[in-house]
């Protein structure tokens, strides 16, 4: 991750520090011009695997990318939605970059970029598909039921909310300790500094998320993203959560 962060075209250490001491919204406004050259962007293998899975589930009419950032997920929607796609994010800077880099092919679905908080989506039930990539760490666990209820409210009956979720790091592994150290550092930072910057890697637990989605009115199915491989015990490295609005 550090190699990607400090690549020649990526953000400098100073820029990352300034971002980390800002609010989430202001931090991403600052990072937006270089965001696509950081390790925070959804990896291409994940995007490609999700695209393949959605092609098997679709096609879809209209799609929504929740917390779209600079539009990595919009690229997925563009391949599986026939009519329109919408990206929503509360960072004006991220939306500006996404809008500037969006393709303008004549056969592409209509594309809209909307500045709004995902906890108060400004839409009716007009979408057939909602996706999200890598944004859930910006929400406290207590906020998730409201977030899921918002996504449920903007989907048509039978609409799907789809997102990848990576298998948790094995306790005691290097990855486990690095995530624990990051989350601990963020909690200390938020206890001592304002405005808060909410970004936690270890709070989005599959069992809890599944129950919250069911309570929000979704039927939940898990699908292994086989292209991303399996761990030594045979479990998938990454699963696709497919939550269908049933009521």
TrEMBL record:
GO molecular function: methyltransferase activity
InterPro entries with a match to the protein in the record: Methyltransf_25, SAM-dependent_MTases_sf
Record keywords, A-Z: Methyltransferase, S-adenosyl-L-methionine, Transferase
Signal peptide location: none
Designated name of the protein: Methyltransferase
Gene3D superfamilies attached to this UniProt entry: Vaccinia Virus protein VP39
PANTHER family per the UniProt record, alphabetical: METHYLTRANSFERASE, UBIQUINONE BIOSYNTHESIS O-METHYLTRANSFERASE, MITOCHONDRIAL
Originating species: Streptomyces hygroscopicus
Domain Methyltransferase as annotated: residue spans: 64-159
GO biological process: methylation
Domain of life: Bacteria
């Amino acid at each position: 991750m550090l190699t990607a962060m400090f690549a020649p075209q990526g953000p400098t250490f100073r820029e990352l520090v300034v971002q980390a001491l800002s609010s989430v919204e202001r931090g991403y406004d600052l990072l937006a011009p270089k965001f696509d050259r950081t390790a925070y962007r959804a990896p291409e293998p994940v995007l490609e695997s999700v695209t393949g899975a959605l092609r098997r589930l679709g096609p879809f009419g209209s799609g929504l990318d929740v917390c779209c950032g600079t539009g990595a997920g919009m690229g997925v929607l563009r391949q599986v939605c026939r009519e329109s796609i919408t990206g929503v994010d509360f960072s004006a800077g991220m939306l500006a970059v996404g809008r500037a880099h969006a393709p303008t092919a004549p056969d592409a679905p209509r594309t809209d970029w909307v500045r709004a908080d995902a906890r108060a989506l400004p839409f009716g039930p007009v979408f057939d598909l909602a996706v999200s990539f890598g944004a859930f760490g910006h929400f406290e666990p207590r906020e998730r039921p409201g977030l899921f209820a918002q996504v449920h409210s903007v989907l048509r009956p039978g609409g799907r909310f789809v997102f990848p979720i990576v298998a948790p790091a094995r306790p005691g592994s290097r990855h486990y300790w690095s995530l624990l150290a990051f989350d601990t550092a963020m909690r200390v930072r938020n206890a001592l500094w304002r405005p808060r910057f909410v970004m936690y890697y270890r709070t989005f637990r599959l069992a809890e998320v599944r129950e919250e989605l069911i309570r929000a009115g979704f039927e939940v199915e898990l699908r292994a993203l086989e292209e991303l491989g399996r761990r030594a015990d045979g479990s998938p490295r990454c699963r696709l959560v497919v939550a269908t609005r049933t009521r």
